Amino acid sequence: MIRHLLSAADLDRETATLVLDTAGQMDAAMAGREVKKLPTLRGRTVVNLFYEDSTRTRISFEAAAKRLSADVITFNAKGSSVSKGESLKDTALTLEAMGADAVVIRHSASGAPHRLSRWVSGSVLNAGDGTHEHPTQALLDAYTMRHRLGRLDGLNVAVVGDVLHSRVARSNVLLLHTLGANVTLVGPPTLLPVGVEGWPAEVSYDFDAVLPKHDVVMMLRVQRERMNDSYFPSAREHARRYGMDARRMAMLPEHAIVMHPGPMNRGMEITPEVADSPRSTIVEQVSNGVSVRMAVLYLMLGGSRPEEV
């Protein structure tokens, strides 16, 4: 297994498949236990270093590490020496002195996890850096697709909305391409990044046209907090052209699923009736996130062999 997980590009097909398979074994192992804990990482220390607000990812990593019996330290930048001006490097040196075996970092600056990996001897896991990447989200999305549809190879996946600011989109494109899926990015030209033609994905501006031939539609949150300019005329106009509603859901093949990494802007990129429908995997993605992050921590920190879980 790789030492750090900084990008979905760090994972080749064999390693990514190993993570997904191990997550499945974790699911099976936990299902048969009254106490939802495994002893595999007892004595290891995992630090959650979050410089950005987070609910799902922070709690998911914390639950994953605790279920593996690791010691967990959750570091919130707002209540730490960072608010007094401490640099990322000095924080890293403090963590190194504490003997952290793994550091899970979320940071507003793209590339922060790469910097951190040079300063600590433990493993570094990127839990989201700026608008760059979020590799464990891509892994849990792939796991959810495989669980629901039985395969990844040959799947047609549409990633829709604010691709420009989405680290989830970047990681999913890289990982799904590695695993043999076909990805189409859908959105207005203003919300597609410069150089997108170099990504291993197709591009479309017509949401309705792509729906009938896709197995998965992944809606992206419109990240207004990262927008300094007007990227579309209005929220209502964006919802009309690129929002997933009941009419559009009916255009999908019968087996197709609708995904969203959360948090959602209900009524903007997705309507409540779609978000709460049987085709939606949104809650399932959260649940699968714990299993996938357990698998990543387990494999990176040198737990026993997967068959011994």
Give your account of this protein's structure.
- The strands form 2 sheets. This protein has a 5-stranded parallel sheet with strand order 7-6-5-8-9, covered by helices on one side. Strands 2-1-3-4 form a 4-stranded parallel sheet.
- β1 (about 45-50), α2 and β2 form a beta-alpha-beta unit.
- With about 300 residues, it is of the alpha/beta class.
- It is about 35% helix and about 15% strand.
- The chain contains 11 helices and 9 strands.
- The protein has 2 domains: about 10-135 and about 285-309, Aspartate/ornithine carbamoyltransferase (Rossmann fold, 3-Layer(aba) Sandwich), CATH 3.40.50.1370; about 135-280, Aspartate/ornithine carbamoyltransferase (Rossmann fold, 3-Layer(aba) Sandwich).
- It is globular, with a radius of gyration of 19 Å.
Distinctive features:
single chain, 309 residues, alpha/beta, Rossmann fold, globular, disordered C terminus
CATH domain class of the largest domain: Alpha Beta
Shape, principal axes of CA atoms: globular
CATH architecture of the largest domain: 3-Layer(aba) Sandwich
Number of strands: 9
Helix content: 25-40%
What is the radius of gyration computed over CA atoms, rounded to a whole number of angstroms?
Answer: 19 Å
